[in-house]
Design goal:
With 730 residues, this protein is an alpha/beta fold. It is 58% helix and 8% strand.
Length: 730
């Protein structure tokens, strides 16, 4: 019987692990621990191997050879990244037109932490860089040590022992590689057992497009580049590297099989007649040198940025292409989890979608490293071929490659566009998500009054508001009818929102029914003083006027001031552009002093009070006043973009100004103290956070979906159903 090759065993192990994870689900999640052990064993020799290998091979180089490697390496790296730039710009054409506003994200007020390139690349403490696994710093340290040894007369005294140590580390790696089938089996079972189909369905656009990018570049573009310029055939390359590529896919890391990848490239070089030992030795230099630089696998992961913009209803325009490309080139030097937020922030893409990226890494990390590994293979073979006179353009092969890639890419992008357009029909928009939100708090009996009117049950002499609520068994709660996401009517004409949800919780705690009283803009002070309501539970900014004339609860939520502006208006995107405007007018509701505080930064601006949003959203050319923006909280403005996706939220101030939301209450010390204590209690028990997560952040409150498994969802479900049928028959 023919002995199975390592690549076949690895593939069998991976497939078996995936099936085990699908079959038993979370029951086999513990296999991920064994997978981590396997990755740790592979990883333990890699950085020392890279360090000693670089020192030895650079130390033995001549200056001419070093210049040649650096020269050709940079030329071909630039060429490969140009391929990535073209793909990044063209592949997003696969996204169909889809407008969708965005929920509020706390990233609106998040301070950006700048990249620490010095710490990443300059090894002030090389031993700390080794212990922290900072590969770029270790590589730079090794390069300088190697360069320092190039001209030493007695350098072989040190280089020979290091050479032996490098060989020893390589042998250890080869021993561990033999258990790769077991390792990838454990990794496959552990990962698949934790997958949620709900998360995958939301990510399908990004996952499918990234998979398309990896397939096109890995199996078409790069093989054609290699075969068009070098003597090495694609068939030979895939045959030699397939077991290593499968292992890289399973582990999600290139570096853990770095020594094996180097050996594979040397084997590829040896397939050509006249292959020299010098050419093979250069692989030990080029690969570690190229590793810290951007590779196409990491570079193409930034296709998540146009996906996130499209997913939130704000597809990137071609005007943003220069910023997108330049920031991606810069950010691809670091891990995607660090670089992506920087690019998204630069392009004003809502960063709440970054959570989707974190979920996607379960799959994309494994796809990304395969393309990254093939990028390194391509770069190394091109550099060595150029340095040893083997580089030769095969015009026919190149033309054939261009035709195949253009046709395959065009058909794939068009097909992907059609597929996503069809599949997006089944994915709810944010409008649909908002309209299906349910009240989280226990619901008490309630009615909604048509108009605001005085409480029919006057207080008895000496009676406080809390006592009257207990006596009547009813609490009167004021609300604004059009103040989403705090209080509004959904598509089913149900009164919902953050404040309404809290109102039900307050009524439940008081064991009281609710009378919801609609309050008109500008009449809050009058209505509270006239005993129309016991408490107002829409979004009310604390202000000097309210503090003087009303009794206010303690703050329960801090919000950020922001402007709501049309998407095509970039004049308010930052302070520098807004301060240059000759004149502009912002609208606002009631809080005149807050409008003046905002305009204190813009001497040429003006403010205009409106009483409903139609005055802002339905402006006409013949209107006497043109409103350029609406001043409100970022939380409310974000919710408005969901129903008006052609608008966006911006902060043109030089810094963020926050304001507190409070509950205006009936003038009564006992009642105020009760409300304050209720806020403290329900804040500490997580009620406020739970309700905030749904109505403000858009995270629908429901039980987390457990990962699907064949055993639980098919076999066990059918067995339980059959058992139930048998009981009915008996």
């Amino acid at each position: 019987m023919k002995k199975l090759s390592l690549s076949t065993k690895v593939l069998i192990g991976l497939i078996a692990g995936i099936f085990l994870g699908l079959f038993f689900g979370e029951k086999v999640a513990w296999f991920s621990v064994l997978g981590d052990v396997f990755i740790g064993l592979l990883q333990m020799t890699v950085l020392p191997y890279i360090m000693f290998s670089l020192i030895v091979n650079i130390g033995r180089l001549s200056l001419d050879t070093a210049r040649k490697i650096i020269k050709y390496g940079l030329i071909f790296l630039s060429m490969l990244l140009l391929v990535g730039v073209i793909a990044l710009l063209l592949l997003p054409l696969a996204f169909p037109h889809w407008e969708n506003g965005s929920f509020y994200s706390a990233d609106f007020v998040r301070e950006q932490v700048p990249f620490d390139f010095v710490k990443l690349y300059i090894p002030s403490n090389p031993f700390k860089a080794l212990s922290d696994n900072v590969v770029p710093a270790v590589v730079l340290f090794s390069i300088f040590i190697g360069l320092g040894m190039m001209k030493l007369p007695n350098k072989e005294t040190l280089l020979k022992p290091l050479d032996v140590l490098t060989d020893g580390l390589n042998q250890v790696n080869k021993m561990i590689v033999k258990i790769t089938p077991i390792g990838v089996f454990s990794i496959g079972a552990g990962i698949v057992s934790k997958l949620s189909w709900a998360d995958l369905s939301r990510l399908q656009g990004y996952l499918l497009l990234y998979l398309l990018a990896v397939l096109l570049i890995t199996f078409l573009v790069l093989p054609y580049i290699i075969s068009s310029f070098t003597p090495y055939s694609s068939k030979t390359i895939f045959k030699i590297t397939r077991s290593t590529l499968i292992t890289i896919f399973a582990t999600g890391k290139i570096i853990v099989v770095f020594p094996q990848l180097i050996e594979d490239i040397k084997a590829i070089i040896r397939t050509e007649e006249g292959a020299t030992k010098e050419a093979q030795d250069e692989v030990d230099i080029i690969m570690p040198l190229a590793y810290p630089f951007p590779n196409l696998g990491t570079f193409m992961i930034f296709i998540f940025v146009p996906f996130a913009a499209w997913y939130t209803g704000g597809a990137l325009s071609w005007n943003a292409a220069p910023v997108f490309v330049s920031s991606t080139l810069l950010s691809s030097f670091v891990a995607p989890v660090t670089g992506l937020p920087f690019v998204m922030d630069l392009l004003h893409v809502p960063q709440k979608t970054f959570q989707l990226f974190v979920v996607s890494t379960v799959l994309t990390d494994r796809i990304r490293v395969v393309l990254g590994a093939f990028h390194l293979i391509t770069l190394t073979l091109l550099t060595i071929a150029a340095g040893h006179g083997l580089l030769k353009l095969k015009t026919g092969k190149l033309i054939q490659g261009l035709i195949v890639v253009i046709l395959a890419g065009g058909v794939s992008v068009y097909g992907m566009n059609m597929l996503l357009a069809k599949s997006m029909e089944n994915i709810p928009t944010n409008i649909e998500i908002v309209n299906r939100f349910k009240i989280i708090s226990p619901q008490q009996p309630y009615k909604i009054l048509k108009d605001a009117k005085r409480n029919p049950n006057r207080k008895w002499k000496g009676e406080n508001t809390l006592s009257r609520i207990k006596r009547r068994g009813t609490i009167r709660i004021g609300f604004y009818e059009d103040a989403m996401p705090f209080s509004f009517y959904n598509s089913d004409s149900l009164l919902v929102g953050y404040g309404i949800d809290l109102a039900f919780q307050l009524a439940t705690d008081l064991d009281a029914k609710i009378e919801f009283v609609p309050i008109k803009q500008g009449e809050l002070i009058k209505d509270i003083k006239s005993d129309y309501i016991d408490i107002m539970m829409s979004d009310i900014f604390i202000s000097g006027r309210y503090a003087q004339e009303l009794e206010l609860s303690k703050p329960y939520l801090n919000v950020s001031l922001a402007l709501l502006v049309p998407k095509d208006n970039d004049k308010f995107d930052n302070f520098k552009s807004a301060i240059k405007l000759d004149t502009f007018t912002v609208s606002y509701f009631e809080r005149e002093e807050i409008a003046h505080e905002f305009l204190s930064f813009f001497p040429n601006g003006g403010a205009y009070e409106i009483h409903n949003f139609n005055q802002f959203f339905k402006q006409r050319e013949e209107d006497s006043i043109h409103l350029d923006a609406h001043l409100t909280s970022a939380e409310r403005a974000s919710a408005l973009t969901i129903f008006h996706p052609d608008y966006k939220v911006v902060n043109p101030l030089p810094y963020h100004i926050s304001n507190a939301l409070v509950f205006p209450v009936a003038t009564d010390d006992v009642w105020v103290r009760y409300v304050d204590k209720w806020i403290d209690y329900r804040t500490k028990d997580g009620t406020f956070d739970k309700i905030y997560d749904q109505w403000i952040l858009g995270h629908e409150h429901r039980k987390k979906e457990k990962p699907w498994s064949f055993y639980d969802d098919v076999i066990k479900a059918r067995w339980l159903a059959k058992k139930g049928d048998d009981k009915v028959k008996k």
